[in-house]
Amino acid sequence: MSEGGPTAAGVAGGELRFRRILLKLSGEALLGTRQYGVDPEFCSFIAAQVAQVVGLGVQVGIVVGGGNIFRGLAAAARGMDRATGDYIGMLATVMNSLALQDAFERAGVTTRVMSAIAMNEVAEPYIRRRAVRHLEKGRVVILAAGTGNPYFTTDTAAALRAVEIGAEVLLKATKVDGVYDADPVSHPDARRYDRLEFSDLLRDRLRVMDATAVSLCMENDLPIIVFDLNLPDNIRRVASGEMVGTLISGGDPA
User: Fold this and answer.
1) What are the Cα distances from residue 22, in Å, to 33, 35, 68, 143, 253?
2) Region of 208 on the Ramachandran plot (φ > 0 left; ψ -120 to 50 alpha; else beta)
3) What is the chain's pLDDT, residue by residue, as a tens digit (254 residues)?
4) What is the 3 state secondary structure string of 27-71?
5) CA-to-CA distance for 11 and 3, rounded, in angstroms?
6) Whose CA is closest to 17, among 63, 61, 57?
7) What is the pTM of this model?
8) CA 166 to chain centre
9) Which of 43, 60, 65, 92 has a CA 20 to 30 Å removed from the CA of 126?
10) Cα separation, 67 vs 61, whole angstroms
11) Domain ranges within the chain, ordered by starting residue
12) 16-249: what CATH class?
């Protein structure tokens, strides 16, 4: 585990380091300045960033959470059946996906929503080979409804879909500029890590992604980059190989 210092060199001449990425967005990211629901203005902000990298030739898959609308685990804690709550949460991710699709297409980016739960009137069924074909044709693919199964988070869905579609990196978009050893909001002296190993996350229980998602990335040697979504050029910078946020990559399990 290291703190400070660059760990990923930029690619000279503006060449791309990553040509197929999976972007993980939390549902809360779509709130913008709102307390509930979806902020169309912030969706447009995300769409502009995605349009920029698609224009450079990057193939983009997206998994979005549903916490801005419904969170199954919280509902279960209040007495709802956990599986029922998770299914409702999956439907919330579909709503968010459709909102993003609208923003992307208004930005001129051809987009497909593919759902792990069949709802043919609003989304295509998720079929891995079809998703890859969409990517190869330059379409953004939004992968909705998690894995289609309860008890799995959208972080795990993002890791699974990233491996399935052959993404070269999983980008975890957050409100802060990387992984810290403590909450930087309540601990101003918290230290940011430039690089971590997967085993560091599991051993130290750093709350970046759940253990299932981290283990899946570790087993398939899929790097994770945790970065600040609120800066308008960060997705392009990551795709170009610049050092942005915190890079989480290989290493032997602790």
Assistant:
1) 25, 27, 21, 10, 24
2) alpha
3) 444 433 333 443 357 889 999 999 999 999 988 888 899 999 999 999 999 999 999 999 999 999 899 876 677 778 889 999 999 999 999 999 999 999 999 999 999 999 999 999 999 999 999 999 999 999 999 999 999 999 999 999 999 999 999 999 999 998 888 888 888 888 888 888 899 999 888 787 777 888 899 999 999 999 999 999 998 899 999 998 898 999 999 854 33
4) HHHHHCCCCCCCCHHHHHHHHHHHHHHHHCCCEEEEEECCCCCCC
5) 22
6) 57
7) 0.89
8) 15
9) 43
10) 19
11) 16-249
12) alpha beta
> Which among 173, 149, 145, 143 has a CA at the least distance from the CA of 161?
143
